[in-house]
Write the structure tokens for this entry.
Amino acid sequence: MFPITFKEFKSLFKSIRSIIIIIVIFGTTLGIAKLVSNFKEQLEQFGLGENTYAGGAMIMILFAGHLFVASLSHNIINQEITSRTIRFIATKTSRNNIIIGKFLGITLFWTVCLFINFLLIIPFSKTFYFSDFLQSLIFICYFIGLTILLSTIISRPALTMFIGITLSIIMTILGFWSIASDNIYLKIYSYLTPYFYYSQQNLIYPYLVLMFPILFLILSLLIMRKRDL
């Protein structure tokens, strides 16, 4: 499992895309921090903290983190199946280890990316906001789990790219809409997205989102066991 984890991590980090992502997140964080400095009360209602730089980082992740995950890892499983390399991997380890190893590899990559971003804003924020870092990572983990599930269900890599990005955009729009809406169906839907939990003032709520990537991972494992390689 861990060899798969580190292989996935290194393959993501060797790409120029990782550097671009760090630069984009850092630059956008600073830009958003300047724009939202006049909206501290609204930020606090969404659980984004009192510091504008930590709030800027959280807003960046809430609005674009899922797009980064989908664009980088949409074919994490089905590409291996399409190229038939998964048959070779499956002779060395179990299917469960393949799924879990890839999940951990992507999570490790995003942990490093977000950690570097929060380190880079220390000269501006004057401190390292560990709680905001953890909440950002948990939000990303939701979409890592969802991306792996989609890649396990859908066999065509190009299709998962389209569906992953489209679904992420729709989920974001409906997620924020459901927070402000009184529609019963949107309210029920809101409990299935991370946006509801991040909109609560209680700081414990964002950590409840962890149950979703675990659920997505379990579903992926069950589907992978029955999948013909």
